[in-house]
TrEMBL record, chain A:
It comes from Phytohabitans flavus. HAMAP family: KdpA. This is Potassium-transporting ATPase potassium-binding subunit. InterPro entries: KdpA. It is found in: Cell membrane. Its main location: membrane. Belongs to the KdpA family. Keywords: Cell membrane, Ion transport, Membrane, Potassium, Potassium transport, Transmembrane, Transmembrane helix, Transport.
Automatic annotation (TrEMBL), chain B:
Gene3D superfamilies: Calcium-transporting ATPase, cytoplasmic domain N (3.40.1110.10), Calcium-transporting ATPase, cytoplasmic transduction domain A (2.70.150.10), Calcium-transporting ATPase, transmembrane domain (1.20.1110.10). The chain crosses the membrane at residues 27-47, 53-72, 210-237, 257-281. This is P-type ATPase A domain-containing protein. The keyword Transmembrane applies.
Length: 547, 407
């Protein structure tokens, strides 16, 4: 069954690649503005036909995100005075900071439990709005980078406000509406109920909150956000009732990241370049999904062996394999939704989500973030390969010189630095004591938290209390820096690429659409990550899983 | 400059240079090796304060890494220096015939080393001599072999006055006699510039090298972080396994400094960083072995980016030594007749080209060189730069070789 589940997903994504990719290409490359969009531009005071240099584009991204964070922070702090608060208190200052940063950075790390902290208004007008626009920001930045490859002799990278508006209105909204309907058909709730009190099987009393779950659930997956309406996220029956909604949610969270290489191929005028990037993503993703399944199904460890399956922390609705596939998919993208608890996975099975995130979430990665991350890695690979040939390397006709490498290597430097420094700081200051476990597993819990935050994933290993002052601030910083520093590097790279005159391909040019190149990119990704994180992994999951 | 593999002697010769490069002020330009050196100093201190076999082993190993990295560069540079020395020697061996008292009635000739020539000196150069320095012809006319500089294989005419008066040091006069006024300052001649290029004194980093250095620096920072942040994690792991005995590697205070430094050196891209500068010079060296003179490592790399090649002259270092290789008869004459006539006309031509005709005639047709004594009626017309012709008059028979100078 697990195999059918995975193979049907691969087939569905393969079919969607061209349709969704071509549709998104038409949206970002089009020149017409719809009436709704024109009204929006007039309201904000933006000239939709004016283009921006990379500096202006970056400042627009930062300004938009800064305002979003301030708004969200204020919104959650005064929620008790607004409608539909369900009587909840205002969110404490450090949790509000953490949450605001988390949703604006497309991370959706949740240092709170949704159904008992956030009222319906905050969920709908605050968090869900960010689920849309933070995803749009990611796609917009990726599109700006692709424009850098596609254009020449120009400083212009497009208009951030136009990209943001179009992507939100024409791509995410219609797909979210369609998806929400499908989810409601599947049994996901959608109401404004304050909840009902029920008597449980054991005779106790439980308060079950309803709410606008389906609308939130769909964008949570589609925009690779991952912030659940409920604390238990996609394991909650109101969010993810059946095996086929589980399949559909995985499809939703993979469909845009996997289709973006098509946009890349179309924009640079060579579809085969898009296929090459897709092949790298698919190779890493399939390998990861298979390995996670293998580790989980092998159920090494005392308890799983005693009970015959690694079912701890998993829901019987989904079973081991479909939970493992969800775990791999959610960490391969920057979603971070969970339908099972990664902390309870077997040691090596629990290591796979960690490795997926440590890869920089490029296979296929978050919406937009995955494509620009992968393109940066492709640039680095072209450079390393070019040195072997002994000529100035070029990718899609653009020379990779000192300036390009500066941006690319800084991009690559940021996230591992945040993870390693964060983990070391937690260990050195003793803040790891909030972890539930001691020894290697407790260590894994700390590593997972910082890996998830720095890579803007947002999934939680669990087993660690992170709504303390220190954790909220530290993880908030990791999310903030892990999102916007790389974005600045990406836009800088786009700017210097767009300025160049394209070099015609010659006999000495490394073909970047052949299997050889795909293999090289995979190799570069794996080697760089292995060298960086092997010592850390050795002390955590490897120590636990191999002892 | 023969292409030879690296000899052990070169290693020894380069060792002092390699040790000199250990100076942190020069080494910091290569961040990767600089970090290795800092690590080596650190482990040395640790090994001295707390000696153990392991500590000294690692220390020695680290120092060897740094020295060998420098050695590779020193050897590469050393080969450049050897080539430069050969060029310099050639320059020093040239003896100039300086004319003292030029312009007066009492003109004397004295031999001096070419390197000692000053601006304004007057020298005389005759056929088969090398012009000792850059200058202007102030008297006479000569055909000069400038192939070493320009690549033109045919000799060129240099004469006083006009725009064909300048001559370059290192070129060779093939016929006649000229008087040259030296215009170069000592140490600024064409040959000097070539020596400085080969020596690598003005070695620039190639664009790829600059970009690679940035990437390596970024990787070094990542691995530095990976090692530095290992310490708190290790302390945590050690405290959890308190029963595990302390070892040289790890104790209650975490991983020992020596092990951390070793891990760092193993992780950072030491090899590439160490060899970067050597690669550029090695590339030039490989080309020299194939008789191509690359002026810089940058040029070697730029060659990889060439899309279109436009050829003007033959290469820069060609020997302008035209040699006769075959007699081709036309009309009703035989090859032997051609050879006979060619030989006769070339007997009075003392340029390499003329001599080669005589040699070829002897080798192919057994025609021996005849001089005026053998042929009583012959009147030889010697080759000069003015006529560009040589030949012989035997009674009424006139044989001429060459072409009329275009007027």
């Amino acid at each position: 069954m697990g195999a059918v589940f995975v193979i049907s997903l691969v087939v569905a994504l393969a079919v969607a690649y061209r349709f969704v990719g071509d549709y998104m290409y038409r949206v970002v490359a089009g020149t017409k503005h719809s009436a709704v969009e024109r009204v929006a531009y007039r309201l904000v005071g933006v000239n939709p036909s004016g283009e921006q240099t990379w500096g202006v584009y970056a400042r627009s991204v930062l300004a938009f995100s800064a305002i979003s964070i301030l708004f969200l922070y204020a919104f959650t702090r005064v929620q008790d005075k607004l409608w539909l608060s369900l009587g909840f208190d205002p969110v404490t200052n450090h949790v509000a900071w953490n949450t605001a940063v988390s949703f604006v950075t497309n991370t959706n790390w949740q240092a709170y439990s949704g159904e008992s902290t956030m009222g319906h208004l905050v969920q709908m007008a605050g968090l869900a709005v960010q689920n849309f626009v933070s995803a749009s920001v990611g796609i917009a930045v990726a599109v700006a980078l692709v424009r850098g490859f596609a254009r020449s002799r120009t400083e212009q990278l497009g208009n951030f406000w136009v990209d943001l508006t179009r992507i939100t209105i024409r791509i995410l909204l219609p797909m979210a509406v369609l998806g929400a309907v499908v989810l409601m058909v599947g049994g996901v709730v959608q109401n404004l109920s304050g909840g009902t009190d029920v008597t449980t099987l054991t005779g106790g009393s439980q308060h079950i909150t309803g709410g606008p779950v389906a609308s939130q659930e769909v964008i949570k997956e589609l925009g690779t956000n991952g912030g659940g309406f409920y604390n238990t996220n996609s394991a909650h029956p109101f969010e993810n009732p059946t095996t086929w909604t589980n399949w559909f949610e995985i499809f939703l969270l993979l469909v845009i990241p996997f289709s973006l290489p098509r946009v890349f191929g179309r924009m640079v005028g060579q579809n085969r370049q898009g296929y090459a990037i897709l092949a790298v993503m698919a190779t890493l993703a399939i390998a990861s999904i298979v390995l996670t399944n293998v580790f989980e199904l092998a159920h090494n460890g005392t308890v799983p062996q005693a009970v015959g399956a690694a079912m701890e922390g998993k829901d019987v609705r989904f079973g081991v394999s479909n939970s493992a596939t969800f775990a791999a998919a959610t960490t391969l993208t920057s979603t971070g939704a969970v339908n099972s608890f990664h902390d309870s996975y077997t040691s090596l099975g629990g290591m796979m989500p960690m490795i997926n995130m440590m890869l920089g979430e490029v296979a296929p990665g978050g919406v937009g973030a995955g494509l620009y991350g992968m393109l940066i890695l492709a640039v680095l690979t072209v450079f390393v390969a070019g040195l072997m040939v002994g000529r100035t390397p070029e990718y899609i006709g653009k020379k990779i010189g000192a300036r390009e490498i500066k941006f690319a290597s800084l991009y690559f430097l940021i996230t591992p630095a945040l993870v390693l420094v964060g983990v070391a700081a937690a260990m050195a200051t003793g803040n790891n004591s909030t972890a539930l476990n001691v020894g290697p597993h407790g260590f894994s819990e700390v590593v997972y938290a910082f890996t998830s935050a720095s890579n803007n994933n947002g999934s939680a290993f669990g087993g660690i209390t992170v709504n303390t002052w220190w954790w909220d601030i530290a993880l908030g910083l990791a999310m903030l820096l892990g999102r916007f520093l790389p974005i600045i590097m990406v836009l800088g790279l786009a700017g210097s690429l767009a300025r160049q005159v394209p070099t015609p391909a010659s006999a000495g040019t490394l073909p970047t659409h052949k299997p050889l190149f795909v293999g090289m990119v995979v190799g570069v990704v794996l080697i760089l990550i292995a060298l960086t994180f092997l010592p850390t992994l050795a002390l955590g999951p490897l120590a636990e899983g191999l002892s | 400059m023969n292409g030879v593999a690296m000899r052990p002697a070169q290693l020894w010769q380069s060792t002092p240079d390699a040790l000199r490069k250990l100076d942190p002020r020069t080494l910091w330009r290569n961040p990767v090796m600089f970090i290795v050196e800092v690590g080596a100093v650190f482990t040395t201190v640790l090994a001295v304060t707390d000696p153990s076999f392991f500590a000294w082993l690692i220390t020695v190993w680290l120092w060897l890494t740094v020295v060998f990295a420098n050695l590779a560069e020193a050897v590469a540079e050393g080969r450049g220096k050897a080539q430069a020395a050969a060029l310099r020697k050639a320059k020093q061996e040239t003896v100039a015939r300086r004319l003292v008292g030029w312009g007066t009635a009492d003109v004397r000739e004295e031999p001096v080393d070419a390197v000692q020539l000053k601006q304004g000196d007057i020298v005389v150069v005759e056929a088969d001599q090398v012009i000792p320095g850059d200058g202007d012809v102030i008297e006479g006319i000569a055909s000069v072999d400038e192939s070493a500089i320009t690549g033109e294989s045919a000799p060129v005419i240099r004469e006083s006055g006009g725009d064909r008066s300048s001559v370059t040091g290192g070129t060779k006069v093939l016929s006649d006699r000229i008087v040259v006024k030296i215009t170069q300052r000592p140490g600024e001649s064409f040959l000097d510039r070539m020596i400085s290029l080969v020596e690598g004194a003005a070695r620039q980093k190639t664009p790829n090298e600059i970009a690679l250095n940035i990437l390596l620096a970024a990787l070094t920072i990542i691995f530095l972080l990976a090692v530095a942040t290992l310490q708190p994690m290790a302390i945590f792991a050690k405290n959890y396994n308190a029963a595990a005995p302390d070892s040289l590697t790890i104790n209650g205070d975490g991983v020992t400094g020596i092990v951390l430094v070793s891990l760092l050196v193993a992780l950072i891209p030491t090899t590439i960083g160490a060899l970067l500068s050597a690669i550029g010079i090695a590339g030039m060296d490989r080309l020299v072995q194939r008789n191509v003179l690359a002026l810089s490592g940058r040029a070697v790399e730029a060659a990889g980016d060439v899309n279109t090649l436009l050829l003007d002259k033959t290469g820069t270092i060609t020997l302008g030594n035209r040699q006769a290789s075959e007699f081709i008869p036309v009309g009703g004459v035989t090859a032997a007749q051609v050879a006979d006539a060619a030989q006769l006309s070339s007997l009075a031509d003392e340029t390499p080209e003329g001599r080669s005709v005589v040699v070829l005639a002897k080798n192919e047709y057994g025609l021996r060189a005849r001089d005026e004594g053998v042929m009583p009626h012959a009147h030889f017309v010697p080759f000069t730069a003015e006529t560009r012709m040589s030949g012989v008059d035997i009674d009424d028979r006139k044989i001429r070789k060459g072409r009329q100078r275009p007027s």
